[in-house]
Task: structure prediction
Amino acid sequence: MEVLTKSAEETKKFGEKFAHQITGGSVLALVGNLGSGKTTFIQGLARGLGIKRAVISPTFILMREYESKVKIQSSKFKTLYHIDLYRLEEDVEREWIGLGIQDILGKNDTIVVIEWAEKVKELLPKNTIWVKFENVGGDNRKIVTTRNWLTSN
Ligand SMILES: Nc1ncnc2c1ncn2[C@@H]1O[C@H](COP(=O)(O)OP(=O)(O)OP(=O)(O)O)[C@@H](O)[C@H]1O
Ligand SMILES: [Mg+2]
Result:
């Protein structure tokens, strides 16, 4: 499905709504150019997952984790992992394994969201939710996901 947002706040709202459609064990793979809205979406997602701490771009760190005390969709969800692979150029697979991410993917107490996820496409689970971001001029962003929920509004 596809949505068009007209401001950063609208993208956050979309992320927040998305949070109510996923459960522990979900893996979200985000794709899109610099400044297309991936981190902004994750800020809304975190808000929707009951995370109070501000989500910032993990510039020098590849991965950040955020704990939540809120029960979502009666799942065992506890920890959001935010991974940004932008700076990873060489040995992507080795780095990925080094970070120990394979062990947290798909666990029912985690939600993992990955920016520049196309770099690890082959390493992600089959049921990964892909979300594509596109800057379509000014403050407009087109967001396309592989899941056809959130069709209303
Ligand atoms: N509709 C919109 N949705 C999201 N962000 C928007 C929108 N309109 C304007 N913006 C602005 O665009 C920028 C998006 O930055 P953001 O960090 O979310 O992008 P990103 O895809 O994570 O980039 P990077 O690949 O560098 O991590 C922000 O400055 C935000 O305020
Ligand atoms: Mg970002």
Q: What stands out?
A: The longest helix spans residues 8-19.
